[in-house]
Amino acid sequence: MTYLVAHGGTGLTGREALRSIINDPSLDLIGVLVTTPIKVGVDAGSLCGLPDTGVRTTDDVDAVIALKPDCFCYCATAVRREEQAIEDMARLLRAGINVVTISTIPMVYSPSAPQKWRDTIETACREGCSSFYATGSEPGVASLNIPTALLAGAGRVDNYRMDEYALGLDEVYPIWDVLHESMGFGKPDGHVPARIASGKVRHDWETVVRYIADILGYQLDAIDLDWETLKAPTDLDTNVGVLAAGTICAHRWQLAGKIDGEAVVSVQYFATVSSTPWPDSWPRPVAEAASAVVYRVAGRPNMRMQLCFDPQDGEKNLNSAIALTGMAAVNAIPFVVAAEPGIYDPITGRDVVTRQAVGARAARGART
After folding, report:
1. Model confidence at 206, in pLDDT bands (50, 70, 90)?
2. Percent helix, strand and coil across the chain, each rounded to 5?
3. Above 70 in pLDDT, residue 339?
4. Domains present along the chain, CATH in parentheses
């Protein structure tokens, strides 16, 4: 069966999703919605490095709705416009169009999302007899779906912790404005990194803590945040310039769900530049990797597993987590279209596995 799909959002991650829709043998791209004037009227393939598809982009939402797609893949940014993004998707749902999205992170586990968002999306699903699914890489597949599979082999669980490593960011994401303003690198001692000061850590990652606690049956007393920054011991050479001695060269935060004061479900995040001296108090990855997630389960059995995001062949600057983010939404489209109306939380199993593997193998064979 082939599903008719429209797409919106053609930034870095949106382009990966668009490419995947075009390459998916079960999906038929029929419309692409854009908001940047220069992108209006161009072929969808040209936006993601593929040959022309015959599908021209538009900035007319009504025109896309009139195409009556089975599903809309919503990848437009929701940064500083989350309420608008929720309303955008609700409009599609009310029109009877199913929606998958990577944009509104707290909705990856809807019981932890703002009540107003849930009410808006649930009402739209009822009115349009449509379904909604939010996902991504992390938070998303890496922090929800993969741990669910790992915990299928667990017995007693004393505590669970996910450590995320974003190391050498000056090399894998050499954009000074982001590293300086968002991560705090090069800022004076005492500066609070923006994602902590803005509340983004709680806004996005409490979803993960609550999901894992819920599937394990924990009744949390509190979710506490602790964080720290590291100062450069000397001037540090980086790919984005020199970080002066005494300024921030790394930070760590941990969001911990607790029972009787003890952490039972935690998410911990480490961000560094390539020349950061690693402190003895910080746990290292299982194996060296610039971008990785380590899952640690203490109990019976004790388990530790690492997921690495390796660079794409021939695309050194494309973090594979970007591709994973887009694929998580695209792979779920047939399931969401076939599902009963409503909101769906982390979906696992064979129904959301890639459908491109056979086609990709045939394409490789044709080139040899």
Report:
1. very high
2. 35, 30, 35
3. yes
4. 3-135+332-367 (3.40.50.720), 141-314 (no CATH)
